[in-house]
């Protein structure tokens, strides 16, 4: 834990002693009404986890009941654990049919607003029809249970329908964030040998069209396994349709049968893949399975967002990330909630678009990211104060540690000091929320994710796995198995073991630093590995480095994060050039652009610093710690004794702008 982002957060959070208890009014209507109730439920959930999770699972519909709730891995740990063994269910059935065939047929399921301003409302009944018909379209293409289907779309109802239709027939979806470049699509599609891609002509963002289909066309030149492309018509912009491969969503839907019975999925059948960055150059495809994932996304949505029948729930995350999977689509829909979806940017056409949406649709629960809150703060409270926001009753954050000042701004300006804030800590790998306050029960402290969710046993340990006393920083691990944990890395089980289970034997290692205070509250301190968090998006330093060295003029590259007021971390790249090339501003821009083209705009380095050499140890390892220090403070004061060539530091410093 050497980066100063972590240090800063630790410093400010150590000074933080404000506590905000839920109001009596909020608590009275909440699912969990007091700390005592939370503690009793928590105690039962960890003392009798099988009984606890069986009760939770019992709130969903199963075609066949499980025979065992939990079967631990061979070594008795969560590594290799199975949940709801022998149970059969279908997540699209629990998200849609259960409500459409029950009392919620005419309740709005998806309330969508396009960036240009159009609004669409789909009831659970509508969703039932659309999902079944689209599932039949997929079946008609010969797509069957177990086939991988890539989804590359913008935020629109059809994206949710695509996921639910895949889940319905047992096809394994692999959503690729619409901001990723063609190259990133190629890697992901080929790694899991997708048979089809679902996309759309274009999507709107900040007033411009993102031509998704054209990017798919470029990618598919290098994806031999893809036989079909289904194109949703969003903007009617001109696209090329490849004969025999590409079909239009609307035309296929018209021809499709109305009824499609859900596939009976085994609890441990894969539901989806989602690629995320790790410490190597290649993103890993985490595999989430059906039963446990359904149960924990359902239960966390119910309790952490305290979902009530009349809530209008809005999570601003893109479905391209895990937050969108679990808390735009699967969690809230299993709860029968009304889910708001917005297509575009928060500052389009003006800085108050989100607040307009909240007032227009009477949003009650609003879940967003600290990086967004920092942007709102910068744009100014005037934009917020033009709107009432009176409908809001609960706020949430996710993606990175929230600094106490941003928390206070969110509390004051958006929550009007009335709404509890749930700071939710979790990861792509955990599938669902792990640490967060239960809002009617647990008092909040600005900057802390507070206490574990039911059934979750976090611990702060040393590198050797020894418990660290309260108040001291260490590594965050989870001691016991939880239902929504990713089961493996697609096609690479060794990488899964190595990344999560080897570091601290017997425990799941998160890659995060944390400390626990005397009240049992967890304070997250950021990543302790070579993973960056840029605007709440995860990026591997190695991933950016491999994009950099793929540039013909770049010889070597090292990437580090440096603290950034808006993004949390900014990407700082140190680059050495191949012989014969000279440093220029033009080349710097070319290299930044190159990375954006290789990975996507979110990976574009903020700084590119040219240097003659990189600091390495005698065994040839790049000393990122020194680069991080240099990028952050402009100085290197840390321990340099293992450095191979002491002259390097002077050279690096000399090259600073
Ligand atoms: C990493 C996971 C979980 C969905 C969004 C990101 C950081 C996430 C918090 C939080 C402090 C957080 C961690 C984690 N993180 N939420 N509330 N407080 N840090 O998912 O891309 O898998 O990234 O995000 O560092 O390991 P992800």
Walk me through the structure.
This protein has an eight-stranded mixed β-sheet with strand order 12-11-8-6-7-14-15-23, sandwiched between helices. With 657 residues, the chain is an alpha/beta fold. Helix 5 crosses helix 7 and helix 6 packs across helix 10 (249-255). It contains 21 helices and 30 strands. The longest helix has 17 residues, at 124-140. The protein has a domain at 535-653: GMP Synthetase, Chain A, domain 3 (2-Layer Sandwich), CATH 3.30.300. The two termini are 27 Å apart. 5'-O-[(S)-butoxy(hydroxy)phosphoryl]adenosine (WT7) binds at residues 276, 322-323, 398-401, 423-428, 449, 510-512, 524, 527, 533, 538. Residues 543-621 form the AMP-binding enzyme C-terminal domain. GO terms for molecular function: acetate-CoA ligase activity; AMP binding; ATP binding; metal ion binding.
Cα-based radius of gyration, to the nearest Å: 24 Å
Q: What ligands can be seen in this structure?
A: 5'-O-[(S)-butoxy(hydroxy)phosphoryl]adenosine
Beta-sheet strand percentage? Answer: 15-25%
CATH A-level architecture of the domain at 535-653: 2-Layer Sandwich
What is the topology, as strand order, of the major beta sheet? 12-11-8-6-7-14-15-23
CATH superfamily of the domain at 535-653: ANL, C-terminal domain
Shape: globular
- How much helix is in the residues? 25-40%
Taking pLDDT < 50 over at least 5 consecutive residues as the criterion, the unreliable ranges are 1-9
State the CATH class of the domain at 535-653: Alpha Beta
Mind summarizing the main beta sheet?
8 strands, mixed
Give the oligomeric state.
single chain
Would you tell me the overall average pLDDT?
95
Helical region count?
21
Could you tell me how far the N terminus lies from the C terminus, measured between alpha carbons in angstroms? Answer: 27 Å
Any idea of the CATH topology of the domain at 535-653? Answer: GMP Synthetase, Chain A, domain 3
Structural class: alpha/beta
Topology, number of strands: 30
Protein name: Acetyl-coenzyme A synthetase
GO cellular component, one term: cytosol
Pfam family, one: AMP-binding
InterPro entries: Ac_CoA_lig, ACAS_N, AMP-bd_C, AMP-bd_C_sf, AMP-binding_CS, AMP-dep_synth/lig_dom, ANL_N_sf
